[in-house]
Amino acid sequence: MRLAEAWRVAVTALRANRLRSLLTMLGVVIGVAAVVVLVAIGTGAKSEVEEQVNGLGANLVIVVPGRLDFGSAPTKSRLELGDADRLGRATGQEVAVSLASGETVRFGGREAFATVNGTNAAVSRVFVRPVARGEYLRQTDVDTRRRVAVIGPELVSSLFDGADPLGRTISVGGVRFRVIGVFEPVGSSTFGGSRDAEVHIPVTAAQRLFGDMRIDAMALKAPTTDSIEEVSDEALAVLADRYPDEEFSAVTQDQILGTVGRILGLLTSVLAAIAAISLLVGGVGVSNIMLVSVRERTREIGLRKAVGARQRDVTLQFLLEAVLLTTIGGVLGIALGVGGSLGLSALVDQLPAQITWWSPALAFTVSAAVGIFFGVVPARRAGRLDPVVALRTE
Amino acid sequence: MTAPALEAVDVTRSYVLEGVTVEALRGVTLTVERGDYAAVVGPSGSGKSTLMHLLGGLDRPTSGVLRVGGRDIASLSEDELAQVRNATIGFVFQAFQLLGRTSAIDNVAMPLVYRGIRRSERRRRAVEALTRVGMAHRLDHRPSQLSGGEQQRVAIARALVGDPQVLLADEPTGNLDTRTGEEVMALLEGLNAEQGVAVVLVTHDLEVAARARRQIRVRDGLLESA
């Protein structure tokens, strides 16, 4: 029998039982939609993280004390400001420093909790951290331990109600600082903690404020992608020389992305696998309905065989019917999944969804395969029916 | 004329039902020539249905030789046998066996699907066959929209569409009233006389059987006279 004819017969049969066909498809529809949505959310989260990490700047090398392994306890830093100068001399690059702590920031009667980051002027050149108004810290601010601050836009709205904060004095941990700049918004972070609610003050002022003469970490910017490794090796060599008993790590953006990507990738596959189970359950439903359909149409099968249908003609007819059920279900599921992903990410801010070309393609292929797999048993049963027995069936 | 349309030589057919062997046919020899018009008669349980299935190539004999369209079916695979049925036999059933939700024209064209004939050609031949049975005005009607007599005419058109050598009709008037049954019989006889299609009727209606050129009486799995 020609494929076109088998196709026509299958479509007619599905139309004859519209509601039943739709309900049978539903299992596949839900399974496919779930896979598409979960993969879209996983992919979206991953690309948002990539965007954020890459948005920090290019070719960054971040130097932190201790060994950076999962499971190892954080190491108390012994780094000090002088180490930044040594690193700068050895590598020929500018070195940004950081000493951060959570503090309460007040203005007038209002207060907000912010991450206060003691930094130096190099931060504005190592990282991408544009200032919308005013200016960033200068080296003289650091050298003279001046009490000036650059604040994030969220603080402008929470403390100043949107009014111009430049030149105003805020209280950071009980010490007065003059606002000299406002950052451009960079968006909320998936890591938690908004970068738009940060306060940057000179690292020397921070050391006095926190009563701590160390620094937490340093960051350098390699001149090219190829020199990242060289710069990090040089930096580590300087530190190994100065602190022979300590370990330090140089982390690159690629390493962060690799780790985060692996975790998110794993999470996405686990979720997709769970969703795929519902696709399997849908397939069982298809198999079940096809068995019912074969039984109902036993006389039709007998007649077709009597007038010359071969076993494979009948098998093909029923197999196509099953595949048609699951592929229509697959297409509906993809539509629902794509629509659902876009709708979800439009409604929920923290849920970035990104449709990849391969997840609908894979979902469609899998649903067709489910149709073949779960259609084979009923279809072969139909093909093997004895025409004499089949025709006699009531 | 070449080989007979149907030929059975000392054919037996036994079934095993729940461990008991039942001999439905115990050695039947008969020939249906092309253009023949025969009625197979006998009480229920005599084996006439079994004989019908064998002659139609729907079943295989336990022993003996059965030739359908000149071919010994013992050597044929299931699929080859299906093709022999398609080419040689036209079936007419008591219960019509039309596909619901399917127009008369598509019902009639159905056997040609398994001959690999194009759709347009199938429909052309189906119209031709429906015209021959006087149903040209009911092409797009579905079985539920047709009377019993009309349904049986569509079924006869379906049996004719492949130009078979033999029409095998199993109680063709069994579900029809006397007058409609009479019309269907007249149609079958006309086809036999004018187009030379052999007609083999299976019936327990002696009045119907008497119209055939010859009667084949089956009793207890044997022929009484041929």
Quick description:
The complex is a heterodimer of chains A (394) and B (226). Chain A is of the alpha+beta class.
What does this structure look like?
The complex is a heterodimer of chains A (394) and B (226). Chain A has helices at 3-16, 18-55, 81-91, 123-126, 139-143, 153-160, 203-210, 228-242, 253-296, 298-306, 311-347, 358-384, 387-392; strands at residues 60-65, 95-107, 110-119, 131-134, 148-151, 169-172, 175-183, 198-202, 217-221, 248-252. Chain A has 394 residues and is α+β, with helices and mostly antiparallel strands. Chain A has 2 domains: 3-52 and 258-392, no CATH class; 76-246, no CATH class. In chain A, strands 2-3-8-5-7-6 form a 6-stranded mixed barrel. In chain A, strand 6 and strand 7 form a beta hairpin. In chain A, 42% of the residues are buried. Chain B is α/β, with parallel strands linked by helices and 226 residues long. Chain B has one domain (6-223): Rossmann fold (3-Layer(aba) Sandwich). In chain B, 35% of the residues lie in helices and 27% in strands. Chain B is built from 7 helices and 10 strands. Chain B has helices spanning 48-55, 78-88, 104-113, 119-132, 148-160, 178-195, 206-210; strands at 6-17, 20-32, 37-41, 63-68, 71-72, 89-92, 166-170, 198-203, 214-219, 222-223. Chain B has a 6-stranded mixed sheet, with helices on both faces. In chain B, strands 2-1-4-5 form a 4-stranded antiparallel sheet, with helices on one face. In chain B, strand 9 and strand 10 form a beta hairpin. In chain B, helix 3 packs across helix 4, helix 3 (104-113) packs parallel to helix 5 (148-160) and helix 4 packs across helix 5 (148-160). Chain B is globular. Chain B starts with 5 loop residues before the first strand and ends with a strand.
What secondary-structure arrangement, pairings included, does this model have?
The complex is a heterodimer of chains A (394) and B (226).
Chain A: H1 3-16, H2 18-55, E1 60-65, H3 81-91, E2 95-107, E3 110-119, H4 123-126, E4 131-134, H5 139-143, E5 148-151, H6 153-160, E6 169-172, E7 175-183, E8 198-202, H7 203-210, E9 217-221, H8 228-242, E10 248-252, H9 253-296, H10 298-306, H11 311-347, H12 358-384, H13 387-392
Parallel strand pairs in A: 3-8, 5-7
Antiparallel strand pairs in A: 1-9, 1-10, 2-3, 2-6, 2-9, 4-7, 5-8, 6-7
Helix pairs in contact in A: 1-11, 2-9, 2-11, 2-12, 3-8, 9-11, 9-12, 11-12
Chain B: E1 6-17, E2 20-32, E3 37-41, H1 48-55, E4 63-68, E5 71-72, H2 78-88, E6 89-92, H3 104-113, H4 119-132, H5 148-160, E7 166-170, H6 178-195, E8 198-203, H7 206-210, E9 214-219, E10 222-223
Parallel strand pairs in B: 3-8, 3-9, 6-7, 7-8
Antiparallel strand pairs in B: 1-2, 1-4, 4-5, 9-10
